[in-house]
Amino acid sequence: MKQIFFTSLALLLLAFHIHVHAAPKVNDAKATDDKVIYQDYLHRDIRDDIFYFVLPDRFNNGNQANDNGAVSGVSHGGFDPLTERGFHGGDINGIEQKLAYLESLGITAIWMTPLLRNNAIQKDGIAHHGYWIVDFTEIDPHFGTNDDLKQLIDAAHRRGMKVFFDIITNHTADIIRYKECHQLDGRFIEGLTRCEYKPVNTAMSEQYSPFLLDDEANIKTPSWLNDPQYYHNQGDSNFEGESSLNGDFNGLDDLNTLHPKVLSGMVEIYQNLIAEFKPDGFRIDTVRHVDLSFWQTFSPAIVEFAKQQGIPQFHVFGEVYDTNPVNLSLYTTDGKLPSVLDFAFQDVAAKIFYQGQSPLLAKQLFEQDDLYKDEDSQADLLMTFLSNHDMGRAGYFINEAGIASTEAEKLQRSILSHAFMFLSRGIPVVYYGDEQGFTGDGNDIDAREDMFASHVASYNDNSLLGTLATTADDNFDKAHPLYRAIVALSELRKTERVLRRGEYQARFYADKENASHAAMFAFSRIDSSTGEELLMVFNTGTSLASATIPMLVTEVDSLLNTQALKEAATSSKTAISTSQVRVNEHDIKVSLAGLSFEVYRVTHRNDY
């Protein structure tokens, strides 16, 4: 097993210092308002939320009786806690048992990977992730029952927490076979491992001939999903050109979302789920692999129906796996989705905080925020994140970048990037396990470790950030420095409304990448109605640096006053002052230790 090495508590102290001042008292009325907001899940604006993204199978096993799913049939089997691909036993009951853990972390919304009934075992793996659906009306028995989910939602709502479903409209499980690729028993013809994509203009005589095995002819629910006419049937996508829309996603049956029946049928499916379970919103899978016109009808219809069901703040966000804001914003404007996952933010955060690239990348990112603005979407509705189940974990990216020379520095970089996510515009999404320092070995199944004691050797040999524990241990440690840092950042975000609503304004970015202060950057969040401003200053370099920020202010107060954040950053109760701020006539000068940040409340001069 890789060995974590901290020479002493002082190592973190020297590596990451945050100077803490006494914070101004919070107005009692404002504190009361915030308390009410976080109790009232039903009416709370989505921008007030802090998300936790979790794979139920890998989080907590609350009911061992359902580990193998159904007693028989396509949703039976696949339980194998020794392999990365197998079901590991986590379930809906397990999440309910850990609601107090999530509430303490500061989480206000839980987003779970799909829970609907899957084809448990396919040629390329086991459906621990939930994305191979055969029944859109029933919870997969590996995860529990419909009643278990209703119970979880009720329990979360009693704590003021929202619950979001991960939904799929692009495809179903891999059931359809093609005579040109498969034998009559469903196996590939010898020599084939996939069905080559055939373009739309392929001659009729050369197109694929779809068929279903007798025992799978009526396997999907609702029943219309069993009819091949509602699918593209053009073979496997190569994720280029038209195949990105029309091809089977890794063999999964690709729905023809231009067909009126598919559109109306999918709207009905998800309206029924809203009516039955009363979730607070949807994350939509594989959005860019579906025709844009589908979203123009689907999203407004779903949101409106939710409102009719008494869910006024129902929120929808899509997965568009693309780092270009021009491409992402297409789906929030022309596509009528209120929000998407901000892959551009993740890309920039990784480059700045893990790879040591220029903070100017952040300035360039935020300068494109107007692309997202229209009548029902804007940049502060974007879902920001650092890790996920497909691309990998922040800890892995830090390890791969190779510029962090110590375990302490790796921890700092993770804390610093989480601070950036919580303090900049957008809605933060914490990936399960990141708060326990999980690192993973890469993407996909290599980033889906167990929070409960794992039996997977390739998970258990990883060094975690900020702890001597491994994934072979039960990892729900509220004393973990990353957990404590996220707690403090959550409290700061909840307390300061301007962090949830304030407009972004660049305050300092070095104009030369080789300048002594090139690793420094600063931005503000400003309440346009009151003028209240919080100033965030980051030093992404490893050495003490200073920045002179042009601002006409009379007073600057630090808000990093929580003991939890202090201890997480320094691992010591004795803080050494390594941040300084001086107010001058025309500017303020901020000095920060390497890999640290500050948050200031600024009071402007009357002539500002």
Notable characteristics:
608 residues; disordered N terminus; 5-stranded antiparallel beta sheet; 8-stranded parallel beta sheet; globular; single chain; 17 helices
Structure description:
With 608 residues, the chain is an alpha/beta fold. The protein is 27% helix and 17% strand. The protein contains 17 helices and 24 strands. The strands form 7 sheets. It has an 8-stranded parallel β-sheet. A hairpin with a 6-residue loop joins strand 18 and strand 19 (533-539).
Summarize the structure.
The chain has 608 residues and is α/β, with parallel strands linked by helices. Helix content is 27%, strand content 17%. It is globular, with a radius of gyration of 25 Å.
